[in-house]
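The authors assume throughout that readers already know how a fold can be written as discrete tokens. The format is easy to grasp once an entry is in front of the reader. For illustration, here is how one protein appears when written out as sequence plus structure tokens:
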Amino acid sequence: MAHPKSRISKQRKRKRRTHYKATAPTLTTCQTTGEVHQPHRAYKDSDGNLYYNGNLLVQAPEVVEETVEDTDDED
């Protein structure tokens, strides 16, 4: 069974891990819709349409709003 030859100190461990950094994703603005998105990725606009490279891929389904009339029949 494998085991470490010697204990790694906190300082040595932390010095090794200084190179592990989180980077912010690169963002671009679409010239067609004006949406901010990651490059080379499909993205949705505020209406729900799916775009890639400035071209419409999938159009969002139409939302039909039904109005309900209140019928209060109180005697």
About this structure: The helical segments are 10-17.
